[in-house]
What does this fold into?
Amino acid sequence: MKLEMKDKPGQLIAALKPISDLGGNIMAIIHQRDPSAAPGDTIDVQIMLDLPGSTLEPLVETLTAQGVNVVRIGEERLLIRRSVILIGHIMHTDLTDTVDRIDSSGLAEVAELGMVMPAINEPSSAKITLKSSSQEEIGRAIDLLRRVAREKDLLVIEPLEEYP
It folds into this structure.
């Protein structure tokens, strides 16, 4: 979420309070004041946050009522990451298709991919990192990756990290 507000003491705190009041979780705030700005000029603030279901509209209404301009909503950040190892004939079984099936599912995106190919006719290994917006969706994306791997006779080793 990108906000535009008057550059005056207390304005940022006033904009953050409704997020807390609505049960939101602030992940990051980017707020840089221009030293050459005149008092009362506007500043941009970018906030990465996680909000419960139907609280976005009330948040926007509250911020607007406080004189805060909501410039942009969206650009959903994919915060949940999970990595697995694939072993097998990854290139011969169409790596592009595997990545496209994950990316086009709407559940997750392939964020990173690293591969080792020891020889042309030998099995290769790849570390694939998926990112998603929720634990549920990342789990469903991993299920999809397992199904694709079964179709292509690839071994999946998971998970490489734990999430709370």
Summary: The beta strands are 2-6, 25-31, 42-50, 69-72, 80-88, 109-116, 124-132, 155-157. The first strand starts at residue 2 and ends at 6. The longest helix spans residues 135-151. Residues 80-157 form a domain with the Alpha-Beta Plaits fold (CATH 3.30.70.260).
